[in-house]
Amino acid sequence: MKSIAILESGFDKELELQIAPELRAGFPSPAEEYLQDSLDFNRDLIKHPESTFYGRVIGDSMVDAGINDGDIAVIDKAREPHNGSIVVAYINNEFTIKYLDTTHKEEGYIELRPANSKYNPIRIDEGDDFEVWGVVVYTIKPW
Q1: What are the structural domain ranges in the chain?
Q2: What are 106-138's pLDDT values in tens digits?
Q3: Is 98 a catalytic residue?
């Protein structure tokens, strides 16, 4: 089952958005007079632009981690994955997004764990065509 489609990098342009200092979910107020700074995704959120990519999430295997079908994952290939990282992995000719579980490494395997009880972990043995392609650093949600 494919759960993520990798899209090409798009860091050629600067994108600056205004930042409001606080957004309260109560009585609305005109925030324009309080704008203090700007947010440039490339400058402020992306540490390794040359190795960062976007991917659109397909499927529901990570819903309990707050990653839903249609979200855009920001994936950094330069980040070192560790146990518990949410990663994009390439396994046996497919990409998937899952938690990396290295607790069984001494036993000769690792697992990719979904964040949805409907799915089982994926066991990765030595003979599998497997690579951690990158670490998910942010998700962008459509509304």
Answers
A1: 4-9+49-140
A2: 999 999 999 999 999 999 998 899 999 999 999
A3: yes
**What pLDDT, on a 0 to 100 scale, did the predictor assign at position 115?**
98
Considering the candidates 85, 98, 105, 117, report the single residue annotated as catalytic: 98
Superfamily of segment(s) 4-9+49-140: Umud Fragment, subunit A (2.10.109.10)
Selected catalytic residue, list 38, 61, 85, 141: 61
- Number of helices (H) and strands (E), helices first, in the chain? 0, 10
Cβ(40)–Cβ(86) under 8 Å?
no
pLDDT on residue 40: 77
